[in-house]
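User: Sequence in, structure out. Go.
Assistant: Echoing your sequence, followed by the structure tokens.
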Amino acid sequence: MRLFYITISILIGNIFGIQAQSKIDKAAAIEQSLLRSKELLQKNIDSSLFYANKALLLSKSATNDTLIAKSHLQKSSALIYKKGFSEADSLLQNNLTKKLPKHIEGQTWHNLGTIQYYKQDFKKALDIYLKAAKILEQAKNSKQLVNTYSNIGSINAALKNFKNAQIYLERALPLSDFNEILRLQILVNLCNTYYEQKLFKKYTDTIFEAERLAIKYNAKHILSVVYTNLAIYYSEEGTDYDRALIYGKKAISLKKELNQTSTLNVTYNNVGHSYVKKGEYDTAIKYLDSAMPGAKGVLKSYIYNNLKDSYFGLKDFKTAIHYADLKDRLKDSITNAQQKEQVAELTEKFESEKKQQQIDILDTKTELQALTISQQKYLLIVLVAFGLLFLVLGYFGFKNYKTKQQLDTVLLQQKLKKTQLNPHFLFNALQSIQNFIHQNDKEKSNSYLASYSKLIRLILEKSDENFISVSDDRLALESYLNLQQLNHDNSFSYTIITDDSIEEDFDMLPNLVTQPFVENAILHGLKNISEGIITIKYYKNENVLYVSIGDNGKGFETKQDDSKKLHTSMSMAIIKEQLKNLNRSSKNFRGNILINSSSKGTEVLLSFTVS
């Protein structure tokens, strides 16, 4: 399995130690512009370039070679971000024509190496970085040297020179104490070089320190890499498949939250592999099927191999042989692709597919003709022998078809209703977010905007589906409750619990059926309650999925003939009709609602059975 590396900073040398060189106002303004450009480098590249140009113009007017060289360095960094390699190279070559302090000369060579790195000329980039490191060692500039060492280590890792990668990353690590985020990035790359060399004691020590720092700084992108690599380690080395599953599922959850769909199939395959090794083949197949979309090359070969082992474990030898053949064919195609020229291969493939398509068309026509003749004979026999029975069956079949059409219409109407959230709720949420923006409260406005966008996205994406996963339902409720807390000035709190018995990605329930009950609890159950609490729990008992929605409100009165009545604002008829239609249209599905209310609160218990 392929381990994931972290690119250090972006392989561009930051300009450290910017200090005023004189008391002249112009020099101070130059330093201030350079500092501002550096601060904006990874936030707003165009603004960073603006301040770098401003510093360069002021430096030229001051005729100060050192300040000009600093300005060239900072502008080249911004240009590299924008892939303006030619102009950046010209600025840096200009620096090398002058006699400059060692630390500036070293930074100049560092940025020249970065240009070659982005041009994919790793050998040339490595030679330049080694020259930069030698100069920076003379200058004793540890803050810049840590970036150069890190980049040398990263390139050696990419070239499979893991021993050299280890040497330079270990040199960089103690120099990174001034910046724990930079240290975290080095740790991830370093632990992977240990893994490649099977230095597992060093690997685990390093990666768990990386996990601690990633959690400390809430670095979710890096944490997803750490969890992915831990899942690979515990699975591939066969040390602990249960831990491999824990870290693999954590990685899946983070990647879904961060929308890292491009590498999600790798992690699904890792989890599936661990289930194969544990002998839980049915669960393994679920994850491996999820890994298949978008998989290519070697990854696809791994997936086929794991599917082969799964079906072999289930004694489904026919399917196992099918995936073994797919794996062998894929392996052969990869080998052939490496041995042939791309144009010749594409031409051959096109001609082959064209011929095969013609053969398939002919075969299909032959099969259709044979099928038509067989059907005609069968129909003739049936019409002669069972004419009356055929008419009766046709009549009931037509009635069943009309009933199904009506049912589909009802389901479509239900879907349309579910997309229409309470406009007052949406308007109030947007108005509250707008107030935070006007108050310049970036943290709250960003948080609530994220919840708002997640909720709307889920509703739009899932509106045409009858069922959604527990994972998506939970995400929708979290986003909805966050916005309701905003609208109600945080007058209530909530807890959402997913029991260990739940497979969040695979256990399904009716689409957004839980949201109306949560809304009812907020608007009516917790009305006039200053410290309201809403508790939601997903759990399974055998084949039954339960969702419990409770509040600590005052409850409501019930009548003997209607003991399950909700608060009057809740449209129970629509939900009951939805479950009734699903009970009829979805095979082996059963949905039920149970409501208990007392002076201590109300609990709605939804149960869904899929056998």
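User: And one key feature?
Assistant: The CA atoms of residues 524 and 567 lie 7 Å apart.
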